[in-house]
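Regression test attached.
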Amino acid sequence: MSTDATETRPTDASPDRPGAINAVPVRHPGRWIAIAVIVILAAMLLHLLLSNKAFDWRFVFQAMNQQPVINGFIKGTLLVTVLSMIIGVGGGVVLAVMRLSDNPILAGVSWVFTWFFRSIPRYILLFTMGTLGILFQQGIAFGVPFDWKIIDWLGLSGDWRFYTLDANQIFTGIVAGVIGLGLSEAAYMAEIARAGIMSVDPGQAEAAEALGMSSGKVMRRVVLPQAMRVIVPPTGNETIAMLKDTSLLLAVPVIGELFYQLQSIGSTYYKTFPIAVAATLYYLAATSVLMVGQYFLERHFGRGFGTKAPRAARPAGAGGA
Amino acid sequence: MALVEIKNLHKSFGSNHVLRGIDFTVEQGEVVCVIGPSGSGKSTLLRCVNLLEKPQQGQVIVRGEDITDPDCHLDAARQQIGMVFQQFNLFPHLSVLANCTVAQRTVLKRGPQDADRIARANLERVGLSDKIDAYPAQLSGGQQQRVAIARALSMDPALMLFDEPTSALDPELVGDVLTVMRKLALDGMTMLVVTHEMAFAREVADRVVFMDAGVIVEQGPPADVIGSPTEERTRTFLRRVLDPTHVEPS
Ligand SMILES: Nc1ncnc2c1ncn2[C@@H]1O[C@H](COP(=O)(O)OP(=O)(O)O)[C@@H](O)[C@H]1O
Ligand SMILES: [Mg+2]
């Protein structure tokens, strides 16, 4: 490889411009070699994708276009991700606030919850959620706790229950899946939210308290908005992980789920590899959308930090995703 | 009746007995400057006045209400006491205007227009009308501290606490903040100021309190306490502050 063409001549500087810097740009031969290698590898990959019959792109797109698959993606993947993350983030923030409170009972409950749900593999947790109906064969009732004992003790009859849910309807399908994934996520989000809350200067809470804000307002108006700057990036990661963990819904079991539906098509037509490609494409697309969303959230919660004007800190387009 | 009355105040951090029986009062409209060596408990005393620190013993009575009483509505008591911190502690995620309205809206339940008007008036008072939409990080230290004063004033406090408000500032920015405080004193605000600015204390204070090792050693008009102190500890402290390059003969 010749580098003659890129040689820059410092002699251009005229003698009447003293102090012209005799600068020779740093050359990076390694960088050019790397680019060449990557270009060749990319060409090989493209060739493989286009020419190898195993990909069967027509079948891939047909499979992706089936209504049960689309439903599985929208309900089993997207909806479950959104609902589980709502439970996870909300629960996580509550658990973090409990954990950091001065009340040892609240802190203890939070610790036990986190310990329990972080210990169970999600696959096993989801399987368990699908079987919990057996614990509540008479349903889950809302009313006076231990009402039958109290009624017995008072010598009365009847019950003090206002509303009864059929447990077998809760602990089944997507509802069980969302509860399981949401509780598990809350345990992880609790740690993330705790780190975020602790990252906020204690002087912030003091200033807010000195203004007469109650502890709830201090948390909502002053501490949490600043903690979000630290909480959002790992939460984006968690959301992406959750998106993929929805494929574990099969353990509940939930059959209205993307990969289950793709697999059943694959086994009908004896095509397994194109099915894997179809699933990969779905997950790639969904993850890309999430990354764009994360970019905007990070920008929103980064307001006021750093010395630049908040609006000037915007890079061109959403390219940061 | 005194605006603030402190009786036999004791505060310890673990085995560190920081306040050892403080008694003093601040009258309505009075400007009291607290001076004393670093670590003598000045900040702790100030933070006990709005109960950011809980004293182990003694009473803090604000407008006749004992705020150390567990039944006292602490948040309500704190609304009447503005506080300005050494490190400003502005809310970095809120604009200057929102810093001055957030507590008005959420604590005093003022409507958006009222809160806005009052915040603007106070920002004008500290000379920062043109920075309303800026974020704290875009301001100099002196400007941030003046916003912090406007934020506290927006709650219409009966008393303002200042904990070394100029100690974190570059020397050329100190003057602007002191000018604002001087104006506030002239307007009749009751102020309790921890400071090392002896010239300010001499000029503005009605009374100077000298603290050392958790007790009040000496207090009185600035001309007495700073001009001709009677206690040896006060004299030693003032010699160090007024002539930092002076070397004590050993
Ligand atoms: N939150 C705290 N925890 C433990 N010790 C503290 C705390 N705040 C202050 N102290 C101690 O109390 C003493 C007095 O501190 P402070 O009131 O800040 O003094 P000053 O403001 O006069 O410099 C110091 O010894 C300091 O270490
Ligand atoms: Mg101090």
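Expected vs. actual: identical. Confidence is low (pLDDT under 50) at residues 1-14, 307-321 of chain A.
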